[in-house]
Amino acid sequence: MSGLRADIEFRRADFTLRAEFEVAPGEVLAVLGPNGAGKSTLLSVLAGQLVPNRGRVELDGTSWLDTERRINVPTHRRGVGLLAQNALLFPNLTALENVAFGPRAVGVGKAEAGKLAERWLSEVDADGLAARKPGQLSGGQAQRVALARALAANPRLLLLDEPLAALDVDAAPAMRGLLHQVLRRQEKPTVLVTHDVLDAVVLADRLVVLLDGCIVEQGQTREVLARPQDAFTARVAGLNLVPGVATADGISFGDGTISGRTVEALEQGEDAAAVFAPSAVAVHREQPHGSPRNAIPVRLAALEPRGDVVRVRGAVRDCALAADVTPAAVADLRLAPGDEVWFVVKAAEVAIHPLSGGAAVAP
Length: 363
Hints:
Elements: E1 4-12, E2 15-23, E3 28-32, H1 39-47, E4 54-59, E5 62-66, E6 71-72, E7 80-83, H2 95-105, H3 110-123, H4 139-152, E8 157-161, H5 171-183, E9 190-194, H6 197-203, E10 206-211, E11 214-220, H7 221-226, H8 231-236, E12 240-246, E13 250-253, E14 256-259, E15 261-262, E16 271-276, E17 282-284, E18 293-306, E19 309-316, E20 319-325, H9 327-333, E21 340-346, E22 351-354
Parallel strand pairs: 3-9, 3-10, 7-8, 8-9, 15-22
Antiparallel strand pairs: 1-2, 1-4, 4-5, 5-6, 10-11, 12-13, 12-16, 13-14, 16-22, 17-21, 18-19, 18-21, 19-20
């Protein structure tokens, strides 16, 4: 088969990882889970840094690992590109020399490697950093150079290990947007490890949820987040995500527009999502007027008590939405399943993100 296929079991005294999945060429698979779930162990097995007790890893029909047949292709022969939390650039080399290192390591001549490095620095909007050394780069700049280095060697498989986790709140959205642009042009399979549901929404076509070493859910990102079967998935999917098409000030959704602040670079007409928390939503019986707010007509599906608030669930055009309101508000509005109401959220509370091919919906 084409793409990546893995079926592994890795055991140690207090932990066992069992995972079976496939990633098609050009597809991005996000592995979502809390700390200690086994995400980094999984990547280490794919990269050849750990050997499982039992398992097979194949790429495009070629066996990288088969414990029964005693096949174990070493890391340097697998053609894996890795982007980790920290850039891990060589401190004594310039950005250009760091990016050229990958092609040089697989036998590309110095001049050609330099041209490849220049091309990839341009691809990640870092061509102006070519002469700088890592100590002269910000965290976001260093990650751009590290991404260019990972791609310049033309990897057969790209592994992203929490690539945004070490970035500050200003650098992370820009890097996430850059990854969205770069990954959708890739023809190789990509595995992304993350604990942030937004990374999966923006970057991944499919989603695997890993908990205590076991896959508890997997499928199209949209389907998994829209109908979570596990409590962890339901908790991390606790955002409203409305899919649409990017406009000048938000997204086009159905016959209307949802306004918000654009967090990552977007072109008008590109697939995008409006993201906002249930706590930012107010519920009205009538459509409000006269203020810069988004008003979305919703048919109520359920009311769920959650401590001091009630989560009011509804849907519009097959998109599930949620609002957290007080019990007093529920009583005052006399809310019940089947009612048609308005979910209202201020534009300032709405973040507009690019949308992956398989992403999106609700808490």
